[in-house]
Specification:
By secondary structure, the protein is an alpha/beta fold. The chain is 54% helix and 14% strand.
Length: 197
C-alpha cells in the first residue's frame, strides 16, 4: 500500500479534490472530518476539552467560536488543545490504514501536513493550489469569515508557494471543475501504475 498526503492552504479546494479522489476509488482519511466527529455531539473528546477549556462545550459538542477565541493567538493554549486532539486523530488514522491495507493507494487529507512534519512518512505529497486572488475570494465568502481572521489563519500555514515547491504532485483548482477532475483522474492512474497495480 502506498500512502500519499493531500494538503493545501485554506480555500484552495482541498475538500473538493478529496471528494474527486474518493470518486476515483481512492480511500481518503480526512483529519478535519475526524476532528469534527471527535468534538461533535457525544464526541469522545468533549470531557477532556471541557476539563481543560471550561465553558467551550455543550449539547452540540465543542463551541468552535468559544474554543477558537481561547486558543487562537496563544501558542501554549493551542499546544494544550493539540495534546488532546492529535493522539485521538492518530488512532483513527491507524484504524483507517488497517482497514484499507489491501488497497494499492490511500490518501491522508492533512491540512497542516508540512507544518506538522508529517510528509516524511509518506510515498509522496499532493498539494492543492489556486491563485491567491481566487483563494481570498473563496475564503471571504464563508460565513463568519473576516479579512483579519483569514490573515491569522494564513500566518499559521506554510505559504502556498513553499507547499508547491515541496510537492510531488500539484492539483490546480484555479481552473474549471472539469479540468480539476481530469487532473485528479490522471493523477490516480499515475499513482496506481506506480504502485504496480
Amino acid at each position: 500500500m502506498k500512502i500519499y498526503g493531500l494538503t493545501g492552504s485554506i480555500g484552495m479546494g482541498k475538500s473538493a479534490v478529496a471528494t474527486m479522489l474518493r470518486r476515483e476509488g481512492v480511500p481518503v482519511f480526512d483529519a478535519d472530518a475526524e476532528v469534527h466527529h471527535l468534538q461533535g455531539p457525544g464526541g469522545s473528546l468533549l470531557a477532556a476539552i471541557e476539563a481543560r477549556f471550561p465553558g467551550t462545550t455543550g449539547a452540540n459538542g465543542v463551541d468552535r467560536a468559544k474554543l477558537g477565541a481561547t486558543v487562537f493567538g496563544d501558542p501554549a493554549e493551542l499546544k494544550a488543545l493539540e495534546a488532546i486532539v492529535h493522539p485521538a486523530v492518530r488512532a483513527a488514522r491507524a484504524r483507517f490504514l488497517r482497514h484499507n491495507r489491501s488497497r494499492a493507494v490511500v490518501v491522508l487529507d492533512i491540512p497542516l501536513l508540512f507544518e506538522s512534519g508529517g510528509q516524511r512518512r509518506l510515498a509522496g505529497v499532493i498539494v492543492v493550489s489556486a491563485p491567491a486572488w481566487k483563494q481570498r475570494r473563496r475564503v471571504l465568502a464563508r460565513p463568519g469569515m473576516t479579512a483579519e481572521k483569514f490573515r491569522r489563519i494564513l500566518h499559521l500555514q506554510t505559504p502556498d508557494a513553499e507547499k508547491r515547491r515541496r510537492a510531488d504532485y500539484i492539483i490546480n483548482t484555479g481552473t474549471t471543475i472539469a479540468s480539476t477532475r481530469a487532473q485528479v483522474h490522471a493523477l490516480v492512474a499515475c499513482l496506481v501504475r506506480k504502485a504496480g497495480r
